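Re: that chain you flagged

S.,

Sorry for the slow reply, it's been a week of failed gels. I finally had a moment to sit down with the sequence you sent. For the record, here it is as I used it:
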Amino acid sequence: MNAAMTIRVADLMTSPVLSVTMDAKFADIRTLMEKHKIHHLPVVDDNKLMGIISDRDLLRVLSPFLGTAGEMQRDLEALNKVAHQIMTRQPICVSAEDSVDAVLAWLQTVDISCVLVTGKEKDIKGIVTWRDLIKHAKFTIDT
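Prediction finished late last night. Pasting the structure tokens below so you have them in one place:
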């Protein structure tokens, strides 16, 4: 039997999870992620999950011309975006009772680095990142 099958998502998820509202400003999102050294930030509306913002989403919005001689008005306008304009909609979610195999399957199938853990009402219970999986991994050496 695979050892991962006996581990539930609840056993390794990070909880509670920081989140932002749909109208959170880009600068506030960036500051929050840097301050807490996180790479994923769920977006909620009335405590219901609406999307997720990753550090990759932030990089996609940021212009490489910001702060350079080539900076244009459109580069500065990117800084005025809000969460619902840059988030990934319909993030991958699992239940706290799911096996860690469900997380592994999603990470192997889709180009993502985390899954959100939600309840029946789409409320956020936790998050599992690839780093959580590594922290909880157990390696055995055959002798």
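What I noticed first: DSSP finds six helices and seven strands in the chain.

Talk soon,
D.
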